[in-house]
Response regulator transcription factor (Microbacterium galbum), 225 residues
Amino acid sequence: MTAAEPEVSVLIVDDNRTVRRGIRLRLENARGIRVAGEASNGQDAVVLARAERVDVVLMDLHIPGMDGIEATRRITAERADRCRVVLLTSEVSDSFLVDALEAGASGYLLKGHDSDQLLPVIRGTAAGMATISPLVAPRLLRELREARPTPADPAQLELLTAAERRVVGLLSSGVTSNDDIARHLSVSVNTVRSQTAAALRKLHLDDRTQLALWGARNGLDRRDA
């Protein structure tokens, strides 16, 4: 670990002790990651996230007492210095995924299927990136595009330039990598990064997952690209 790579503190939340132990063993041997604690229920997760000032919480969905979504909502609301939460669950559900993202989760991974991505996801999440399991991302975006519950706020749309709307449109349609967005729009990757950052700042959103969610709900799909 170098000065440019600060240590990432992680809280593991799962009601299964064996699962917690397995995750802890993986993280304890990883460069630049420190396990700050474990919790078996939502209430303890909220308390420990605050007390230990952790960077990333790995949160199971179904835990005793306060469920993972409510715990996520409280953690992200209470931590002004931006503790980020990644749901790590076996539940493949469109409604749970939407609820998790609306609660402020920065990621949604499936146990087993996405376990090999755990370390890069933790590091990326601490740096402000967001990750949705490839198994559920297309379903989420399709549901949001079909639902389109309300039209976009014209004032919010006017905050974005036409170029920024095109980037958000592609992101909301499931084209999630900067390289792929740049290829679609025939621009540089640096331009995509700059336009994504500008959209996040203007809309007061925290990460790309929230930006994709906003774009899909407000109709900025690929027809704008």
Q: What stands out?
A: The mean pLDDT is 83. DSSP finds eleven helices and six strands in the chain. The first helix runs from residue 17 to 28.
